[in-house]
Description:
By secondary structure, the chain is α+β, with helices and mostly antiparallel strands. It has two domains: about 15-165, Aminotransferase class 4, branched-chain amino acid transferase, N-terminal domain (D-amino Acid Aminotransferase, Chain A, domain 1, 2-Layer Sandwich), CATH 3.30.470; about 175-340, D-amino Acid Aminotransferase, subunit A, domain 2 (D-amino Acid Aminotransferase, Chain A, domain 2, Alpha-Beta Barrel), CATH 3.20.10. The protein has helices at about 60-65, 85-100, 105-120, 195-200, 200-210, 255-265, 280-285, 325-340; strands spanning about 30-35, 40-50, 65-70, 70-75, 80-85, 130-140, 150-160, 175-180, 215-220, 225-230, 235-240, 240-245, 270-275, 290-300, 300-310, 315, 350. The longest helix has 14 residues, at about 85-100. It is globular, with a radius of gyration of 21 Å. It starts with about 30 loop residues before the first strand and ends with a strand. The structure holds 2-OXO-4-methylpentanoic acid (COI). 2-OXO-4-methylpentanoic acid binds near residues 70, 198, 298 and 300. 2-OXO-4-methylpentanoic acid binds near residues 198, 232, 298, 299 and 300.
Amino acid sequence: MTIPVEKTRTPKRRIPEAELGFGKFFTDHLFRMDYEEGKGWHSARVEPYGPIPLDPAASVLHYGQAIFEGMKAFQQPSGMKIFRPGQHAARFARSAARLCIPPVDEKILLEGVKTLLRTDADWLPAGPGTSLYVRPVIFATEPFLGVRPAKSYTLLVFLSPVGAYFSGPARRLRIWVERERARAARGGIGGSKAAANYVASLLAAEEAKKNGFDQVLWLDGAVHRDLEEIGTMNVFAYFGGTLVTPALEGSILPGVTRDSVIQLARSWGIPVEERRLPLEELAAAHRAGKLEELFGTGTASVVAPIGEVAWDGVTMKLPEPKKQTLGERLQAEVAGIQRGERPDQFGWLEAV
Ligand code: COI
């Protein structure tokens, strides 16, 4: 299929790579589709990036019927490639189903993403650690105040040239364990990429930041015992020669980088357990000197090492790495595949 492209007449200034950071700049165009009941998703097109009119009664503003995705495109010697777009599209579809948003044809979505990437290809940064971050979002636009799924929606996909997610020099993160509040509960929408999950995390994250921490480690919403996820990342602990990460039981995000890290570690012969991981088990492993590493994974942050975890009078400092850590090896492998510097043995890359 061919998606029509309307080019901007006012291209923006291109951003020097040193200024990029994460999610601050947006390219010249976006991909858009609209949905109305009876008509389905229609009018797929690429058009100039800009503000969009929204009715004050649009139900997304009141009841939060909104989902998003985040994937990345990279500069490779053989051209632009997207990392695991099919996985992101499939998760977007699962999020849509959970939030009663009508399904989008994954082929049209991915064709829209590629058309947009080709239109704004000259925005793709080339330096190490940079990429074009692709942000699809769907929100309910119907002006109606009754509580039920909306009858009209807009889908937008836009692009942000990005560098590292965490600002400042590369460092190991300081993490605060939230012991009272919950981000999500089993049976809720924590496993979907719903906008609402992120607002639920803000207050604890702000408090943690005020106290000098980078992000919050969430525990399960029922009894606050088992690890769930960290801020914008899935969490992994390496101890006793095994990599352990919380199982997907509906309240945490099924991260694409999480899945990539699990596949890579297993291919290197490292046992990976997806299971419930009580904070107390982690603390006991640390007290016994067995906790080697903790790290977070995410599309935006890739593999982010953790240097310290603290809660209620306890500070768990992770050992200073003396040689390349497992997290560093995973980070180097994922980044190497993404940049075409290592073989794409799992077929994770798709040409644009
Ligand atoms: C990502 O890692 O792509 C995410 O979606 C996290 C984000 C909210 C910055």
